[in-house]
Amino acid sequence: MDTGFSFAQPDDYTQLLTELHSEYCRDQPEDVLQYCANFFNHRLQEQRTMLRQQRNPQNFEDNELHPLAGHNQMFGDQLSDSDKDDDFESIEASDEERDEFTGELLSMAPPPTYSRDRRTSVSAESMAPTQGRDFVKTVIPKSPEQCARIRESVGNNFLFRSLDEEQYQDVVDAMAEKQLPIHERVIEQGAVGDYFYVVEHGTLDCYITKNDAEPVKVTSYEAGGSFGELALMYNAPRAATIIATSDVVLWALDRVTFRTILMENTSRKRRMYETFLEEVHLLKSLEPYERHKIADALESVHFEDGQKVVTQGDIGDHFFIIESGKAGVFKTDGEGTAHQVNQLSRGSYFGELALLNDSPRVASVIAQEYLKCATLGKKAFTRLLGPVHEILKRNSENYYAVINQQERQIE
């Protein structure tokens, strides 16, 4: 049973997300984005109505903002075109109205009271990276079949979509087995949650209780299902009660382990990327804080042995840095024969001139074993730091060296 606790109380932001999650689990909408938009729009209108009523209680009836009619309309899966138009019209106020209302909010807002009526948060967990020290990973033995089921269960979960292959494997390795009997309450609505669960075997039912009414069953879980992911993000009260309807075997991941894995790997990779970026001639003019931004924006990609990373003659828009593995550089001569002209390994980079222009690739790069790279596109680079040409001009010597390299490759 989930018995984790924390001394930190949930804030308004966490409570809002918890309420959204509870409503979502109950209604199971098909159009998730529209559902969330309706939820927040409804809450925004309620807040505006309350604030206007507090400020002008006598004139409130004349100035009242009308909330959307009916709970079912507010949170239904399907909305008519006129309903959606009404939603957006309520959001898209004129600049003048928004400025006026912002002024009202500022004038009505109470002074900050960051610790009013509550203790300072106390937590036993440390989220600070270990500053280069080796992070001891938790590895709990599992069969390949069990690992595959866990991977499949968390593969489409929003919380895990941004993890790279190494982080993903660390999460799977760290999951601990929990065996619970039938009728056991795995989590209790309102309790503080510290675990995310994947169902290995058995069945469970999910119930939500509102306003002291009878619990309502909203969904069921069986092998391959997962629940409790919000506990990995927030110290939020559980939004539902989960009860085993048979003997169950669960894989559990605690919040501290997940966040430690995520932060440690992210910190370590950032340091590695920044070291690699210092060797890229095209980017030597970057300031340290700019290199830090690029390191955070790099994405991991993988290639199997023999797979092409870039193809000679194609227009490139990404550059690559090798994290692990090897790749061969091949040039095709006039007779169509490919010749290997170089081999790249960890720390090597290629395709960087794609950030500078739209010239065709001058060679093909092919993975010669399992290859892991960090990559960034021209559009993303420009969005973060602006055109590469302007950065290059900060260092005239390096600028001309890169331009000469570009001209030689074109020739």
What is shown here, in short?
Belongs to the cAMP-dependent kinase regulatory chain family. This protein is an alpha+beta fold. Helices cover 38% and strands 19% of the residues.
State which percent range the strand residues make up. 15-25%
Across the major sheet, the strand order is 1-8-3-6
Tally the beta strands: 16
CATH architecture of the largest domain: Sandwich
What would you report as the Rg, rounded to the nearest angstrom? 27 Å
Largest sheet: 4 strands, antiparallel
* Helical percentage: 25-40%
CATH topological fold name of the largest domain = Jelly Rolls
- Overall SS class: alpha+beta
Task: List the main descriptive attributes of the protein structure presented here.
411 residues, phosphoprotein, 16 strands, disordered N terminus, alpha+beta, globular, Jelly Rolls, 13 helices, 19% strand, 38% helix, four-stranded antiparallel sheet, 3 domains
Structure description:
With 411 residues, this protein is an alpha+beta fold. The protein folds into three domains: 31-108, no CATH class; 144-259, Jelly Rolls (Sandwich), CATH 2.60.120; 278-410, Sandwich (Jelly Rolls), CATH 2.60.120. 38% of the residues lie in helices and 19% in strands. It is built from 13 helices and 16 strands. The protein has helices at residues 12-27, 32-55, 60-63, 71-75, 81-91, 95-108, 144-154, 165-174, 255-277, 288-297, 378-385, 388-392, 396-410, and strands at residues 176-180, 185-187, 195-201, 204-208, 216-221, 226-227, 241-244, 248-254, 299-303, 308-310, 318-324, 327-332, 338-344, 349-350, 364-367, 371-377. The strands form four sheets. A four-stranded antiparallel β-sheet has the order 1-8-3-6. It has a four-stranded antiparallel β-sheet with strand order 2-7-4-5, covered by helices on one side. Strands 9-16-11-14 form a four-stranded antiparallel β-sheet. Strand 4 and strand 5 form a beta hairpin. Helix 8 (165-174) runs antiparallel to helix 9 (255-277). The relative contact order is 0.10. Residues 1-10 and 60-124 have low confidence and may be disordered.
